[in-house]
Design goal:
The complex is a heterodimer.
Chain A (H helix, E strand, L loop, with lengths): L1 H29 L6 H19 L7 H18 L9 H23 L15 E5 L2 E4 H23 L1 H11 L1 H6 L4 H26 L7 H15 L4 H21 L4 H15 L13
Antiparallel strand pairs in A: 1-2
Chain B lengths: L7 E3 L3 H19 L6 H26 L8 H17 L7 H20 L4 H20 L10 E2 L8 H28 L1 H11 L1 H6 L4 H27 L1 E2 L1 H4 L2 H14 L5 H16 L6 H16 L3 H10 L9 E3 L1
Antiparallel strand pairs in B: 1-4, 2-3
Classes of the chains: A mainly alpha, B mainly alpha.
Chain lengths: 289, 331
């Protein structure tokens, strides 16, 4: 049933939007692409595994601990390392975050072995909600989508209305002038990375409840996040959600046609958008740079 | 320019003559090595050359053209599969199929470039990675290529192991020497000068008449040829190919760590880096993933503190360039 496939894809897109938002945020603020973005989400999921085991919490409750931990890691990483690379061109930041990606993956492999894991949230993964007309959707995918939309609304308000959001936008438009106006870019970039990893921690834990993951699940998350951002168009949060939804629908539809074609169909749709509309479907500006 | 001033542009230095002499000695040594019949050493050298060529090709892209690709594993996989298809399905001599596999990889690089060249800078990096995944998944979904389980190179089965290893060694030495010499000559040529101009400033080089797009495209295709040939060489040695192994991001991770540690944007850097990498791999063979953690950390620290790499430190300290591609003005 195709309606079912599309609904599932849309809900999956909510999860991808969560991954994509953090990536898009730091690119917007400081023109940095964090190649370890996906690996940080898997790191968060593994930290949640440890918290669940030691404190016997429901995985959803671990958010209270894991989100601040990841935010702190992000802040420290940006202030101690990545800030020193900004202004040295694009290459150092790309290579350092790629190195981090490999270090995190192999660190997880040494610590947690190559076994696949899953976060058990006590039944919500299998519960479903009837939508009428014989259509039912998983309760958990629905919750994920709702959380993604709420986070995007929150982020939109933060960026549009708050002082820190104004500073983000100022730094994004013109870092030098923002500094003249009293914005401390080092601290600001630290906060942006903290926010980015906090969001990706939520994404990682929701991913871990939804499906199994291993130490090497990170790179795929990075690629899906990247594809959602590009499909949606740079600089548009709702475009990112739409990009995530298009990618999610492409993947579920592809997987329905043939089991091996899910992820591949997503990639091909991404390439098609890139070829036909290089600046994305919902970009605010028409220029990709 | 003031009339009467004598300006001479030097391309050759004492160090570059020493470099050429040293390189000639190394090549002579490598050519004579099969006489000793030390098969273990020959295998180690093939392994080393593979790493070196991958590093030189990536260095050409990232260090000289400013194209930071994280998707070069695409061409290792394409080269490896092309070898098996050419040798087993088309009946081409498996040794002749190695350079032909490089041509196949270069053929795939053209349409790939049409896509990934739409990205700039950091987005180019992720874009190339995504395209490499597309190739992996396409191969993994193709029956004729053995889907996820992959295939075995059968064409070399009738040959004696010694013959295969000896010819593989000879091809490896030839590929290694050709790669270093070709990159050196390319960078010293007019085209190389244009390439470095494009890396340093696209608008400025375009205004001086350099065709930016064609310059970058040429380098991308050349790097795909070199990487594809190396992929074929790898699987001529390994015999067994699977999509997950051949299109693994680890190939690119090794390559990047070698170039970053050795020194990006120099010809000596990848050689130094490949030596460091190769020795560490031998030393830490029993420690599994710790080896990649150590190398990754080392690469991150080098990039943070000494972005010019190990060779860059030496070159800076003593102004030493065994393979100079720059022009020096002398009076």
């Amino acid at each position: 049933m195709w309606v079912d496939t599309v609904v599932q894809g849309v809900l999956l897109g909510g999860l991808y939007a969560l991954f994509a938002t953090g990536l898009s945020l730091i690119f917007g603020v400081m023109r940095l692409v964090n190649l370890a973005h996906g690996d940080f989400s898997i790191l968060a999921a593994f930290i949640a595994v440890v918290v669940v085991q030691t404190l016997e919490l429901n995985p959803l409750m671990t958010l209270v601990l894991v989100v601040p931990i990841m935010a702190a890691i992000g802040y420290g990483l940006q202030r101690l390392a990545l800030n020193r690379l900004l202004g040295r061109g694009i290459l150092p930041a790309v290579l350092v975050t790629f190195g981090l990606s490999i270090v995190i993956q192999n660190g997880l492999l040494e610590t947690f072995s190559a076994d696949s894991r899953r976060l058990n949230a006590g039944g919500i993964e299998t519960a479903s909600v009837a939508l009428g007309g014989g259509l039912a959707v998983g309760a958990f995918p629905l919750l994920t989508f709702a959380v993604a939309v709420l986070l995007l609304v929150g982020l939109q308000l933060l960026i549009g209305r708050s002082a820190i959001g104004r500073a983000f936008r100022a730094a994004s438009d013109d870092g030098v002038t923002a500094r003249l106006m009293g914005v401390d870019p080092d601290r600001l970039y630290g906060l942006a990375m903290a926010l980015s990893l906090a969001i990706v921690a939520v994404a990682g834990i929701f991913l871990g409840i939804r499906t199994t993951f291993t130490f090497s699940s990170g790179p795929d998350r990075l690629l899906f996040a990247f594809e959602a951002v590009i499909i949606g168009g740079l600089g548009s949060l709702w475009g990112t959600l739409a990009g995530g939804v298009i990618l999610g629908v492409a993947q579920t539809a592809g997987a329905r046609l043939s089991p091996g074609w899910g992820v591949l169909t997503g990639h091909l749709v991404f390439l098609a958008v890139l070829l036909l509309r290089p600046s994305g479907l919902f970009a605010k500006s028409r220029r990709v740079d | 320019m003031r009339a009467g001033a004598t300006v001479r542009v030097a391309r050759t230095t004492a160090a570059s003559r020493a470099g050429a002499g040293g390189a000639a000695l190394v090549v002579a040594g490598l050519s004579a090595l099969p006489l000793t019949g030390d098969a273990g050493l020959m295998r180690a050298i093939v392994e080393f050359i593979t790493l070196l060529v991958l590093a030189q090709m990536w260095n050409l892209l990232a260090g000289y053209a400013g194209l930071v690709s994280i998707g070069q594993q695409a061409y290792i996989g394409l080269g490896g599969y092309a070898l098996i298809v050419l040798a087993d399905d088309c009946g081409v001599n498996p040794f002749l199929a190695v350079p032909l596999a490089g041509v196949v990889a270069a053929g795939f690089a053209l349409p790939t470039a049409a896509l990934v060249f739409r990205f700039r800078d950091a987005y180019f990096a992720v874009g190339t990675w995504a395209v490499a995944e597309v190739y992996r998944l396409l191969v993994a979904n193709t029956d004729a290529l053995g889907r996820g389980t992959g295939r075995t190179l059968k064409a070399v089965f009738p040959l004696a192991r010694e013959t295969r290893e000896l010819v593989t060694y000879a091809i490896a030495v030839a590929v290694g020497v050709a790669a270093v010499v070709a990159v050196y000559l390319y960078l010293r040529s007019r085209l190389g000068l244009g390439l470095m101009a494009v890396r340093d400033s696209e608008p400025a080089s375009a205004s001086l008449g350099v065709d930016v797009f064609r310059t970058k495209l040429a380098v991308y295709v050349v790097a795909a040829f070199g990487t594809g040939t190396t992929g074929a060489l790898l699987y001529l040695n390994l015999l067994r190919i699977s999509p997950d192994a051949a299109f693994s991001i680890n190939w690119t991770a090794y390559t990047i760590f070698i170039v970053v540690i050795g020194g990006l944007g120099t010809l000596e850097g990848p050689i130094v880096g490949a030596l460091v990498f190769f020795l560490l791999r031998r030393l830490l063979a029993d420690y599994g993933a710790w080896y990649m953690i150590l190398l990754g950390t080392l690469a991150v620290l080098v990039m943070m503190r000494y972005p010019q790499g190990l060779w860059g430190l030496v070159a800076e300290r003593w102004d030493l360039h065994f393979f100079p591609v720059q022009r020096r003005v002398q009076r």
